[in-house]
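On clarity, I found the account of how folds are encoded harder to follow than it need be. What matters is that the chain and its backbone geometry are given together, residue for residue. For the editor and my fellow referees, an illustration may be useful. For illustration, here is how one protein appears when written out as sequence plus structure tokens:

___
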Amino acid sequence: MTKPLEPWSAALVLVGAVAVTAASVVGVASPVLAGPVIGSTVAIVVGQALVFALVLGSRRSRPDLGLAATAAVGAVALGLAVTDLQLFARALDADRLDLFRPTAAAAPSPTVGSVALLAGHAAYVVAGVLAAVALARRPSVAVDDAPRRGVLVLLGAAGAAAAVVSPAYVSTDSVFLAPSVLGAPLSLALGYVLAALAVLVVVALAATSPRRDVTRGALVGVALSVLLVVVPRVPAAATAGDRIDVGPGTWLGLVGAALLLAAARPDRTAARPNRTDAAGERRRAAERPRRAPNARLVAGSLLLLSAAAAGAGSVLPVLAASGPIPRIAGLGAVAVSGVVVATVGVLLCLSEFAPSVRPASAPILAAHVALVAVVLQAVVLGVGVDGVRPGLGGWLLGLSVLAAVVAAPALAAAGGSDPVDSDAAERPLLVRAVAWTSAVLIVVGSLLPARSVDGRLGGWIGTWPWGWDVWGRVVFAAVVVTTAAILLRARRSRAVAAAVGTTVGAGGLALAAIVDGAAVGAAITGVGAIVSALLSGLLTRTDE
């Protein structure tokens, strides 16, 4: 008989709450100019107590709610645990003003509080995994016609994710620099990106869940996780002096968490008195809450939005200045990519084609983001020149990336609603070898320089901090590896579609780089695309 996981999950939540609280009390580094701020410590203690009270209080009365909240907190904690590693690598660059104020006299070193902080977040991660497994084991229920408040959920998720990756502070201090996430050290940048992705994935899965308590619990868990990150920053910045102030990420987090909590509030329509007259029946019909939104339609609509924004951004000025602006490479590839993504979005909105197209949409969308990121990197470099500012096209390209990021978890949720792969089988050794060869070639090509302009190589993983273009290719490489692992276990139609999507995405990236001046990375990616095309044919032949 399977042992229950709920008690272990709740116990680990308690361990995580105590460990994180202890770290906020004793401090995480020494020597420092100032230790933990009292207001920040109080905020952390109250927040950790709320998390544990929610999990403990819902164990018997609303178990789905408590498990979903624990899983959400654990998902976000994974990214936070990665950011904790910066305390051990170089605490001076950790940007944890709520835990310590660095001094110019000596570089701070991690203390036992750093170990407690990392252990606490690790305990939350394990608790979240156990809660997710326990939630999956619980018996399924009928679809619950609970209000999902889609606008609040979408805006709250976007605000919460943007809060994690936006600057936490605005600083002119010579010691506390507070760089942007993309310019931060590797562990900070990677951790906050993982946390933002966790927010989007959890919210998407919650919004499409048929269980009302799962939806509410996941939204509350994400909101509490974001509040635990951003609320301690406010008193920390208030006591830091005139040269340090709260950044936009903190305000976005507060707004996003408030919207998620508003979306998770209980439905009161069921408690209203019954009406027996005809007018009352019509009123009740108008008040009847709607079902969860269809993830497939949400994903398709977001892909259409991303494509439209990319297409418009590619023909409008991406930079604005009083003088001449040099030609920005990659705009033509973005326009073509927008047409491809729009086609995929339309097919996703059609129920007859969606199950066959959805496996191909992930690598195509990731390649689209990588192509747009090349232009956005040029925008970032351009605005560093005096008198140059982003044009309307640049803002639209940013909107295109945002819509694509939000569409990614909706695509994942749509995959869970597809028919079960009853004929899926283990692939032959030859097919597996070709699939992983294609994936490895594309990954290696994505991580190496893809462009060469006037004899100068573009960004690659060996140059830090990574630019938008490198981050885009890294995301594409991760999607390709995930797609390869999935297609080897999927049935024939989906496996072929995934291979074709990888071919289109990798081929598009390689061709775009060749037009602008290809480097070794583009050539390797192109070879990987050819191998992926061969894989699609091989999958068709071996499964006949």
The chain has 18 helices and eight strands. Strands lie at 29-30, 109-110, 169-171, 244-246, 319-320, 389-390, 452-453, 456-457.
